User: Which sequence fits this backbone?
């Protein structure tokens, strides 16, 4: 059985792949993916976070990929590999959650094994390893910010971070076990 966050990453990867290949709206694409692969509320929220975060930071992430793999122009990298890298880089540098960079890299390599070519896992691991080596200070500052936070979930007050996502307005038709609306 696939764990929740890995399943959410798979759904986000499929959505980003489709968005790269078509001109469909992100909400439509992710909704269709979640219809095919229902997730619990937390998993769906994580998939939305990944897709929205990658799309929000896409230009910066693509420029970074170009620096990390200069012999591979971003537009010539296989679409699946490109989006695996985008997700992992978003998680490592920009995501507000507490995913350790080693976990983000391991998950990216697993996605590459599942969806990419035979050389994809090695390529993804190499690019992300270069990221960690070159930008260790920035990654460590992000990690230190995360470990120094104090959270009071009962009163929904946090210091040094946004509040957790408010799922009360989350589209109910994207949740596991609920009826789908057309």
Assistant:
């Amino acid at each position: 059985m696939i764990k929740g966050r890995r399943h959410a990453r798979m759904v986000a990867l499929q959505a980003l792949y489709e968005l790269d290949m078509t001109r469909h709206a992100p909400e439509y694409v992710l909704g269709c993916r979640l219809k095919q692969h229902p997730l619990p509320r937390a998993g769906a929220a994580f998939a939305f976070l990944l897709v929205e975060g990658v799309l929000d930071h896409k230009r910066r992430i693509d420029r970074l990929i170009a620096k990390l793999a200069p012999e591979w122009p971003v537009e010539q990298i296989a679409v699946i590999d490109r989006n695996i890298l985008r997700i992992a880089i978003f998680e490592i540098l920009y995501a507000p959650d507490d995913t350790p960079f080693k976990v983000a890299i391991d998950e990216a390599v697993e996605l590459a094994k599942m969806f990419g070519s035979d050389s994809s896992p090695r390529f993804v691991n190499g690019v992300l390893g270069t990221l960690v080596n070159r930008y260790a200070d920035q990654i460590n500052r992000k990690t230190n910010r995360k470990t120094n936070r104090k959270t009071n979930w009962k009163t929904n007050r946090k210091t040094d971070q946004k509040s957790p996502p408010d799922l009360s307005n989350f589209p109910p038709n994207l949740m596991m076990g609920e009826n789908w609306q057309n």
